[in-house]
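We recall that each integer encodes one residue's backbone shape. We quote one record:
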Amino acid sequence: MLKAKNPTSAGVRHQVDFDRGLTATSPEKSLTLPKKQHSGRNNHGHVTTRHRGGGEKRRYRVIDYKRNKPGVEARVVSIEYDPNRTSNIALLYYRDGEKRYILCPDTLVVDSLIVSGPDVEPKIGNSLPLKKIPIGTPIHNLELKPGRGGQIVRSAGTIAMIQSKEGEFCTVKLPSGEIRLIKGECFATIGQVSNLEHKNRKIGKAGRRRHMGWRPSVRGVAQHPGSHPHGGGEGRSGIGMPGPKTPWGKPALGKKTRGKYKYSNKYIIKDRRVK
């Protein structure tokens, strides 16, 4: 449930937060790894993602996207916060003693029993092939190639839906609106990803944004013409060109970047941009 904070200071006056329903305050140590900060730079030291840097130290939680323990039942021990993603994560204890993290589906509660495999019941938290999931069932953590592990529909509140089945393929509608064919052997997890209110939160102040590792963003028109194509001009002038550009002079906002002959184009039935 969304909750506006009391305006005890200017910083929290506009903050809107919510109860995430967490049941643990610290992670399972054996399932975490050190996470080095790269500040948006690649292995050459070049900035590939702008406005990143600083922020609190965080450890990476190892998530099981493959769910490759068929027939082994697991109990949900806790629902936890993960600073590296928008959704909550659930800690599982398997019957054979192994511990794993998974993306937590909405409505999953502590002490629930879940399992993966081709012949399991299609209930919240279970993972099974698309060809065994009834049409119209909400799914997430969806594979694009059998055995690779979930690659899409993983962020907070997202959901996909099976629309039809024909031959070895299933027609799936994705959160973006795209409709595409995916092989029936690909696994998916039943349910909607947790933390549905994530999109409605308000950060409230710049300092909290810095704690999250995001640095300030400056408009192109406010910059020097040597730093950005939109810069320069007298007073409050516009960008001075037919369409917007990136700081490196490439067309932005609307320029199609997908390859014309990309191999997966044949699997897309309806483009996400088509209404």
The longest helix spans residues 206-211. Helices lie at 206-211. The chain has a mean pLDDT of 93.
